[in-house]
Specification:
This protein has 324 residues and is of the alpha+beta class. It contains 6 helices and 14 strands. Among the domains are: 107 residues, Immunoglobulin-like, CATH 2.60.40; 106 residues, Orthogonal Bundle (Cytochrome Bc1 Complex, Chain D, domain 2), CATH 1.10.760. The strands form 4 sheets. It has a 5-stranded mixed sheet, with no helix packed on it. It has a 5-stranded mixed sheet with strand order 4-10-9-6-7. Strands 11-12 form a two-stranded antiparallel sheet.
Length: 324
Amino acid sequence: MNTSFQMPPQASTIASQVDDLYYFIFWVSVFFFVLVTGLSLAFVLRYRRTAGRTRKPRAYHNTPLEVAWTVIPFALVMVVFIWGFKGYMAMSIAPGDSMDYYVTAKKWLWEIKHPNGTTAINEMTVPVGKPVKVILKSEDLIHSFFVPAFRVKQDAIPNRYQTLWFEATIPGEYDIFCAEFCGSGHSSMIGKVKVLTDSEWEAWQGKTGGKPEGMEDAEWGAQLYTQKACNTCHSIDGSVVTGPSFLELFGTQEQLADGSSVLVDEEYIRKSIVDPTADVTAGFQPVMPTYAGTLSDLEIETLIEFIKSKQDTSEAIGNGQTEN
């Protein structure tokens, strides 16, 4: 794995091309900074005003010097332009045998549909050594899909498809960031690209995606709470973030933005997951994206069990109503 003193490890086929151009510009800039600063200091010292100096400086024309400081910068700019354009074309046109991944950006998560139909939140699983084409869109506002280790970044724009591609070269896990400020949950809009070996990829493809064997519903629900990015907006310790906390939520009467109230039961939670703008809790904005089609019925039921496990049963009476 190639590393550098300024950039993260190179983990894709395009990364070295991006780094080579970056370091060319960087070291050319360093060279001219030292040259111009050094000459400026030398001239200041050499031609500083002294008590014995009476002759005024004489201006004169130097054609070779003027040609040099015109031609050299122009040549450097053209080198950067041609080099950058070739890199841009290589990054823009995906190979014909690329695997298509549909990625939808929402506040504040990445919904990723894999070629085998599997949908995941904030987790992209890809094979090593195979080109991957990412087809991006946004459900609300502008986001930006950025994988530093692959040196790829592309904006996700509402009502429009944007594409990028990469070919991972080293198995492992790599961060996905949103590189466009998108509100209060921007900093927690983080995902992972899992790059698998050929054998790991085959094994992953064969998984059903159901509940892990021997795991209780509430335990798997706790896992889904993180994997599906519920923790981005809902705490489990009572603290208020973008959405209501799950602590002691089940079985209470929730005040809604329209002035009515509703009992927090299984049906209310299910409806809030698949149609989150239908019953908005008072004091909160309707910013939660729908998970309809993203979560299976089993996953929704498991998340409900997880939320129920965060209830203080001593405060729930009978059928789930709270004491007056």
